[in-house]
Structure formats: C-alpha cells, structure tokens
Design brief:
The chain is α+β, with helices and mostly antiparallel strands. Helices cover 21% and strands 34% of the residues. The structure holds biotinyl-5-AMP.
Length: 257
Amino acid sequence: MMPLVESFTEETTSYVNEGWTIRVADELRSTNSIAGRLPPWTAVRARVQTDGRGRTGRYWVSDEGGLWLSAVVPCPGERAKWSILPLAAGWAFITALEKLGVKNLRLRWPNDIMVGRRKLAGLLVERYTEQTAVVGIGVNVFNHPERGEPELSGATARLADLLEGNYTLDDITQVLLHSLRAAHATLLEKGFAVIADELNHRWGKPRLVCVTLTGRDETFSGQFHGIDSHGRLQLATPREGFQLYDPTQIELLRELE
Ligand code: BT5
C-alpha cells in the first residue's frame, strides 16, 4: 500500500458533475498523493504539480496549461481482480479523447496515449487503500513540457495541436471522468474481456519491444502481440516462444521500432 504523503494546504474550489466531486487546486506536489485520502468518485485537479510522478519513480513534467487529474474509484472485492484497472483506464481515456475528435491516437502498453512516437498522456494508477484506487492522468494540452525538460524535445504531443474547437481544461476533465465511470461500470457488469478486445485494436502494428521484468536487472526483447482476455501481455521471443506476462511482472517496456 502506498504511504499517504500530502494534504490540501490551501482552499480548493469544488464542484459536482455526473456523480463526481471535483476539487481544483492551484499548486500541488502530486494530485495522486492527495487523492489517496479521498472517498470514491472524488477527483483532484491542479493547475501545476511541483512533483508530478510517473511510474516506478520516473518524473512527470506538470507545467501550467496541462491537465493534471487524479480520480478515486471504488475497488470492491479481491485486490487481484483490479490488476487490470490500469489497462481499463487507458481504454477509458483514449476513447474519451477519440470522442472529442482527436485522430490517430494509439496506446503504448500498458496505457501511454501516443500520437505516433510522441506521448500525449500518461497514467499512474495507485492503491492507497484496500477499497479504492487512484487513477491519475496527465495530458499535455496547452503546456510546453519540453521547456522545463529539454530531453522531452520531440517526444511529446499536445491536445491544443490536435483538437479543433475551443475546449477548456474543465471540458476535457468532464469527458475523461465520464468515460472512466463508464469503463468502471463495464468492468463490473461485463468483465474485462470486452475491454481487452477493444484495447487490442489500439496498440497499432505488432512491434519489437524491450522489456525489463520487475525486480530483475536484465532486459530482453520480443514482439509485442497485445493482451489476452485476462490482461496478460503477450510477447513472442525467439528463445522462449510465445509467453504471457501479468502486468505486475513488467517494470518497463520500451518500443524498439
Ligand atoms: C507516466 O509514467 O506516464 C505516468 C504519468 C502520470 C502523470 C499524472 S498527472 C496526475 C497524476 N499525478 C501525478 O503525480 N502523476 C499522475 P511513465 O510511463 O513512467 O512515464 C514517465 C516518462 O514520461 C518520463 O520519464 C519522461 O520521459 C516522460 N514525460 C515526463 N513528463 C512528460 C510530459 N508532460 N509529457 C510527455 N512525456 C513526459
């Protein structure tokens, strides 16, 4: 379980929409850390994050103009059942952006939202309590992440360059939260297999990838073939043939082509 590390130190504005209570702060270290304390169907958004986090300790540039959002969802029942939530959340958010009219999006396993080789959005799903999960998403919208981090130059995409129409961060928040709630209902009512099917249409062509297994130093490469109906990654290597990996077994996957 993640430690609880942050609480609101300033007034936030708060509003209710489609069953979500949305709290908007000016500046937070990380919206995920603060959302960990909050009840299900609460979401936290910040104008900027001073310590935005990626997965396994990586950084996330969270400058003004981007959408930095964390949503708390209920996770009833066995903990293991929810290991597919990061995949389901990726599906929820990519379909939401497609509905806004963004074209040529694809997912990079497990849930990076990409335009070609450029990263538009990243997700960080964390469990702070037994009964809830925090689904964090960072989307570049009007911001310029490469200004704060030159190594991101040429590696990011922004919604402002992809969307027609005048959408505000509030509008995009609502569309994303609506879709996350719908995906959560699909998971409970129909199970993950339906979502897995949808996801397998969104990885793009089979790609050569380089994988680091959790807790191991070594990396190896193989051909990525999407996921199975339980959310396990399907990888083909010359030595081992076709293998299935639970999402928790993989620390990092890089695309080689
Ligand atoms: C992610 O990690 O992609 C998860 C990012 C989640 C961010 C949200 S914002 C709201 C919530 N609060 C948080 O503190 N986090 C969540 P990962 O797959 O590990 O990717 C991290 C890598 O993405 C970094 O090492 C950089 O290479 C790259 N990166 C960092 N900032 C970026 C940005 N703004 N746009 C595109 N790429 C970025």
